Amino acid sequence: MIEAIARHPRLAALLGAACIAFSGIFYRFAGESPATATVFRCLYGLPILVAIGWQEQRRYGSLPPATWRLAALAGVFFAGDLLFWHHAIEAVGAGLATVLGNLQVLVVCFLAWILFRERPAARTALALPVVLLGVVLISGLVGGGAYGRDPVLGVILGVLTACMYGGYLLTIRHGGRDLRRPAGPVAIATASTALVASVVGVLLGELSIVPTVPDHLWLIAYGVTSQSVGYLLISLSLPRLAAVLTSIILLAQPVMTVALGMVLLNERPSPLQLAGVGLVIGGIAVATVPAGRLRRAAVEVRSGRTAW
Length: 308
Prior knowledge:
- The structure is a single chain.
- The chain is mainly α.
- The chain is built from 14 helices and no strands.
- The protein has helices at 2-6, 9-21, 23-30, 34-60, 65-92, 94-101, 104-116, 122-139, 151-175, 183-204, 213-237, 243-264, 271-288, 291-303.
- The radius of gyration is 19 Å and the shape is globular.
């Protein structure tokens, strides 16, 4: 099954982005606390990841100890990512919080520069002021009628989300270099995330051990689609697609979440906030998508040389 999906990487990436686009929607429908939603998202998504990871182990052998350690550390970052993001949703809504979380693209660029001497492209520096202007507009500091209980707090939490997610991506990338086994490291990171979120939830007094039955159904949908299926599809597609094409497809995810939030959650960002969304997404696109490669990718799509 994995091999069959891998033969259609663009479709896998798009379906993965669509699965993750529903994350904030399912969280709001569940109505649980940030820590509770984080824990159960991981617990409900874990069985699928463990099952596939077990098959990978039978086929290719055990993961190296270094991979286990890095995946567990990645789970710590991912716990911070989800906890900050859930709180950001409460402050500024699912759509805008998801857009802010995608600032991880720039975070990863600069962390890779600082930690691994991977110098970012000049276009990243050019995109930064555009993205920052978009963040200011989303925060509601300019103009009036901004959507959200506390949009400024939502922006702060969204930026922290991006920082945590950037740490997760860099760590899981260095721990999961074996492309034959995408599920194993993600399963370890997911278990680590559940453990860390449980501890944080207990310390903050916001962990509910037994959510109500309707909430459980939304949390199951949240865990299966977002934590397991979505990330597996993206993990399968990433090494099989040009980076430019992957960036374009994944940028569809925050746009979809904004639209879904407006339709399903009655979220109503102000015109300036929506302009900020456009600037953030556009700035990220400028930072990640070289114009020359974009033209070549468009030619490949039109000629059908990249399989769905």
